[in-house]
Amino acid sequence: MKQFSIKEHKKIKAQAMVEFMLALPLLLLLIYGTIEVGRLIFIFASVANASRQAARYGSAAGEINDIAYYQNCDGIRDVANQSAYITDFDEINITYDRGVESDGTQIPINDIDPNPDVDTCPIEDNTIRNGDRIIVQISASYEPIISIVPIDPLTIVSASARTFLISIPILGSSVPTGFAAESSTPSKTALPTSITDTLTPTIGALTLTATHFVPADGTPSNITPTDFPPYGSTPSNGTPINLTPATLTFTPSKTPTQTTTPSITPTAISCAGLTGVSHEALLIKDNIMEMTITNNSGHTLTTAQIYVEWNHDRGNDSGLRLRQILFANQTWNGDIQTPSAYIQGFYPLIPPGTSTIQFVFHQNYNLPDGTERIIINISTPGCTNYPVDSRN
C-alpha cells in the first residue's frame, strides 16, 4: 500500500491553491456577468410591464375625480412607477393616435403628434372616440455596477398601446323574439250572448156600451155605467143589458242585456325577413348625414336608443358639431361635439313604409373617413333590441 510522505502532501496542497487562484478570476467574472445579465433582464421586464400597466389604466372608460382616465396624466405615471419596485424611469411619454394603417403607419389625430417620443398628455376634451389608442412609452437606463469593460449606459425603451372603448352599444333581449302582439281590431263582430225580455203590461181602454131600455111603468131611464149589474145578469124588468167587457192588452217591452266577448287574434311582429326592417346605405351630402329605413312590419315601431358616430375633427374648423336630427316629422335639437354619442331623450317612432333619418351638422361634412355609423335599437315587443345598423 502506497503511503504519502508529509513532503509530498504539502506539494499537492500548494498545487491546488495555485490552480484555484488561476480559476478564481474567471469564476468571479462568470458570477458577476450572471448578476449583470439578471439586472438587465429585470430592468427590461420592469419597463415593459410599466408601459403595459400604464396604457391599460389610461384606456379605461369612465372618470376618476371628474377627470377621464386618458386625461389623468399624473395617475398614468403613478401607475407606471408603482409597477416597478427598484427601477427608476428616465421618461414617461403619453400620446394618442387613431390606430395604424395596413402597412403599420400610424393614423394621427388632428393637432396631436403620435410619435411616442413626444408627450402630448393631457389631451383636450371630446377628442377621443372609439377605436383611438393611447400610447405610453417608458425608458430607463442600464449601467454596469463595476465598469470592468468600458460600456456606455444602455437605454431600454418600451412602448405599449391600448385601444379606447369610450361608448359601447349594448344589445340584449328582454322578451322572446317570437312575441305576438295583440291587434286592436277584433277579428269577429261582437254579438250579444243573452237577451232578457221585460214585459210591461199596458191596459187597453175600457169600453162600455149601454143599451137604453124602458121600464114596466113606461118611463124611459138612462143607466150610468155604475148602475149596471154584474156582467151576464138580467135586470128585474127582463130587458137584457149589453156590456162590452174591458180588454187588457199586454205590450211586451224588450230590453236586451248585451254581453259581448270579442275574439282577438294575435298578430306576430317580426323585424327580420320580408316583413322586417331594412335600410339603405349611409349617405353624406353637404352638412347632412342620412340613412333611409324601410319598415315592412305593418306596425309603427318605437325606438329604444339611437347611436351615431362621425368624423368630428375634420370639418372646416377643429370640430364638427351635431345640431339636429330629423326623422318622420320628429325633431331633436342640441349641440354635440364628441365623435360618437347616444342621443338622450329622443325616441322617435318608425312609421310603416319608407322614411329617412337625417343628422344635421353645423357645417359641411367635408372629409368622411369611414368611421361614420348609425345604430337604431327598436323596443317594440317582438323586435326588442333589434338593431338597424348602417354597417350591416
Count of individual domains = 2
Q: How many β-strand runs?
A: 20
| Count, helices | 2
Shape: elongated
Please give the largest β-sheet.
6 strands, antiparallel
Low-pLDDT segments: 173-191, 202-214
| Rg, Cα atoms, Å | 51 Å
Given the helix and strand composition, which structural class is it? alpha+beta
How many angstroms does the end-to-end distance come to?
97 Å
The proportion of residues in beta strands is: 25-35%
pLDDT averaged residue by residue: 77
Helix content: 10-25%
Order of helices and strands: HEEHEEEEEEEEEEEEEEEEEE
Descriptive overview:
The structure is a single chain. Helix 1 runs antiparallel to helix 2. Strands 10, 11, 12, 14, 15 and 18 form a 6-stranded antiparallel beta sheet that branches. This protein has 2 helices and 20 strands. It folds into 2 domains: 6-163, no CATH class; 269-389, Jelly Rolls (Sandwich). With 392 residues, the protein is of the alpha+beta class. It has helices at 6-58, 73-82; strands at 63-64, 67-68, 91-97, 133-142, 154-163, 180-182, 197-203, 248-254, 266-268, 277-279, 283-285, 288-295, 301-309, 322-327, 330-336, 340-342, 349-350, 353-361, 373-378, 386-389.
